[in-house]
Amino acid sequence: HGRRTSGLTAFLRQIGDNVTRLDRWETELNEALPGDARDTTTPASMAATLRKLLTSQRLSARSQRQLLQWMVDDRVAGPLIRSVLPAGWFIADKTGAGERGARGIVALLGPNNKAERIVVIYDGRMPP
């Protein structure tokens, strides 16, 4: 492609995420081949990275607000998480879907409209 993804992976290493890696761009990264280590992370790594991005000085305050706003404005997770939250709960999320049924959700959640928890769900089950 000529465009390199190594910059994001290098940034992740700088902030202490030694697991997450980006090897390809959209839409190729959605391939989700079983056993393929490319374009992968773990729930724990993603949660820790999101917490760092939103609470440390790794991003400017403006960039932190923008990231949070993108997550607040996301409506894809409506039937996935939003529809089952109790009234008054805060949610800001990003979702993703790959080939072969792969699914991912990264969300900030909390009662009383406060973002108190980070929830990360990855489902790599293959359809029957």
TrEMBL record:
Gene Ontology molecular function: any one: beta-lactamase activity
Domain Beta-lactamase-related: 4-113
Gene3D superfamilies on file: DD-peptidase/beta-lactamase superfamily
Xref: Pfam families: Beta-lactamase
Keyword Hydrolase: yes
Any one Gene Ontology BP term: response to antibiotic
Key words, A-Z: Hydrolase
InterPro entries cross-referenced by the UniProt entry: Beta-lactam-related, Beta-lactam/transpept-like, Beta-lactam_class-A
Domain of life: Bacteria
PANTHER family membership: BETA-LACTAMASE, BETA-LACTAMASE-TYPE TRANSPEPTIDASE FOLD CONTAINING PROTEIN
Designated name of the protein: SHV type beta-lactamase
Species: Klebsiella pneumoniae
